[in-house]
Amino acid sequence: MNLLDLRKKIDQIDTEMLALLNARTVLAQEVGKIKKASGQAVFAPEREELLLSQLDRKNKGPISSGTLRAIYREILSASRAMQKSLRIAYLGPEASYCHQAALERFGSSDAYVPARTIPEIFSLIQRNEADACVVPIENSIEGGVNATHDALVTTDLLICGEIYLHVRHMLMVKEGSREIRTVYAHPQSFGQCRQWLLKHLPNAELVEVSSNSAGALRVLEEPDAAAIASNFAARHYGLKILHQNIQDVTRNLTRFLILSRTAPSRSRNDKTSLLFTVSHEVGALSHVLEFFSQNKLNLEKIESRPAMQKEWEYLFFVDVKGHSQQANLKRALSQIRRKTLWLKILGSYPQANKNV
Fold it and tell me: Where does the chain have alpha helices with state H?
């Protein structure tokens, strides 16, 4: 076929796709009516992840898995919006990594609500000013985000999903800037770029801000300052990128949690997060951990955090493969509850793909 023939064929396929997309949207509207009548949540992460996984398996190419997911992210976002436009809270200002993660998970048809701090993000949902939120929980280089861990202790919100974002740090300045005297970034970003900063900007003052996009905003007003943020932030604020990919480790992943007031249904690939404290007895923690191995459960993470109420006591955050309602994990949780001072199940939710 010549070029004209190929374009005619593409136009024909586009027409067929448009008809199918509208037919799909009509069905999504009917699903929305059923959900509304039965009081079900609009956001169903387990259903969306199942759909995307099935499409991954069926995909024969040449379209890549990442591109396919990006296309369907917008289809799903538009379908949800026909039922209800969700309000998603995130750590702002606009163009933060948290904002980027939220957009990559939910798509452009939902509304996004920036918050200045992580506690404020949680309070937006509790005041019914947002339907769900996205918060950072850990980074592959710098570890856990303490503010999120602390907020999870007292909240009644449930984890309903997770997002992995490949973080690429850029050093950016205002167009026409002079010598860099100050660098703004989130504390975790400074930790992820520590060696690069020591080598290239050893005399610059490093000033911590609540998010990288907040640092980018500061740079707009200061000609002798730079910010560490994403390419997304540079485009959004019209800043000039001086250096790309300044993180010390090439593969730099940040994991984000999605929280809401409702728990998702079981999927085929779930993870459960929980929080507990143990008594000051020899072997108390190891006894609790034995219940996981006895029930053939795979621990994916265990992290300790000082308890606020009493000195030298610790909270333990654990991620375990499986859903809290499956038989072996349900049995393990019952055993653990009897051996801990306090146990809180933070949520069971579909496990996200780390290979972003």
Answer: 3-38, 45-58, 65-83, 97-106, 118-126, 146-154, 187-192, 194-200, 212-219, 231-237, 284-294, 327-339
Class of the CATH domain delimited by 170-251: alpha beta
Q: Which helix (H) or strand (E) holds 229?
A: strand 225-229
Structurally, at CATH architecture level, domain 263-350 sits in: 2-Layer Sandwich (3.30)
Under DSSP, the state recorded for 264 is P
CATH 3.30.70.260 residue window(s) in the chain: 263-350
- pTM comes to 0.89
Name the segment(s) of the chain with CATH classification 3.40.190.10: 170-251
CA distances from 79 to 169, 192, 270 (A): 33, 38, 24
**171 to 11, 225, 226: CA distances (angstroms):** 43, 10, 7
Q: Which long-range contacts (CB under 8 A, 24 or more apart) does 293-301 make?
A: 294/332, 295/328, 295/329, 295/331, 295/332, 295/335, 296/328, 297/321, 297/322, 297/328, 297/329, 297/332, 298/322, 300/271, 301/138
When pLDDT is cut at 50, 70 and 90, the band that residue 308 belongs to is: low
pLDDT at 305: 86
How far is Cα 286 from Cα 288, in angstroms, rounded to an integer?
A: 5
First-to-last CA distance in the chain? 37
- Cis (ω within 30 of 0) for the bond into 93? yes
Query: Which residue in the block uniquely carries the two structure tokens 């937006």?
Result: 124
Long-range (24+ apart) CB contacts under 8 A made by 52-59 are 53/268, 53/269
pLDDT grade, residue 311 (50/70/90)?
low
Q: DSSP string covering 52-104, please? A: HHHHHHH--SSS-HHHHHHHHHHHHHHHHHHH---EEEEESSTT-HHHHHHHH
